[in-house]
Each structure stands twice: as structure tokens, then as C-alpha cells.
Specification:
Blueprint (H helix, E strand, L loop, with lengths): L2 H15 L17 E6 L4 E6 L9 H13 L6 E6 L12 H6 L4
Parallel strand pairs: 2-3
Antiparallel strand pairs: 1-2
């Protein structure tokens, strides 16, 4: 796998994450700042470190499963590891400008 192939897979993973929405907030989880790290190994393994807007989020299982299922569909990904973390704690400063605008928080 070439460096160009790896970059393509990483971009495709990001595009996929931008199509997953927190059911309680009308912003995708990537722009919401819930994705802390994407690590793609040329062997096909993608590890995603993500958080939630609150540790007791009732949608946690659904979001993690959705990330797992959707990223597994990306061409070049053979295995997905989703790691839920709470450090650092999420806050609105982690949101993209687009997300802040969408939620009128600017």
C-alpha cells in the first residue's frame, strides 16, 4: 500500500465520520469534535478514539456501533477498533467553525 493509498483511506474514513450524526444534535460527530484520533494501519486496521458530549450519553452504544459499522465499509479497512475515551473531557471548543455556526454558538 502506497502513502497515497493510505491518505485516500484516511480521507474516506473522515468523510464517513462526517456522515454519522449524534441523534440528539444536528451536527456530524467529526465536526462536533467527538473524534479525537484516527489511526490507520496499512494492514487495514483503523483505530478511532472518540468521546461523547457527556459520559452518561444515552446514545453511546448506538454511536459507537454506528462508527464501527460505517468505518468498516470503507474500502481498505478490514478491521475497526473504536475506543471510547473521556480525557480530555469534551467541550464546545472542540467543535469546528461549521458546527458552531450550525448550532448558532458563534
Amino acid at each position: 500500500m502506497t502513502a497515497e493509498d493510505i491518505l485516500r483511506v484516511e480521507k474516506d474514513v473522515i468523510l464517513t465520520l462526517k456522515n454519522i450524526y449524534d441523534p440528539e444534535i444536528p451536527v456530524n460527530i467529526y465536526d462536533l469534535g467527538l473524534i479525537y484520533e484516527i489511526d490507520y494501519d496499512p494492514s487495514g486496521e483503523a483505530t478511532i478514539r472518540m468521546t461523547l458530549t457527556a459520559p452518561n450519553c444515552p446514545m453511546a452504544d448506538i454511536l459507537v456501533e454506528d462508527v464501527n459499522t460505517q468505518v468498516a465499509k470503507v474500502n481498505g479497512v478490514t478491521k475497526v477498533n473504536v475506543i471510547l475515551v473521556f480525557e480530555p473531557a469534551w467541550d464546545k471548543s472542540m467543535m469546528s467553525e461549521e458546527a458552531l455556526l450550525e448550532l448558532n454558538l458563534f
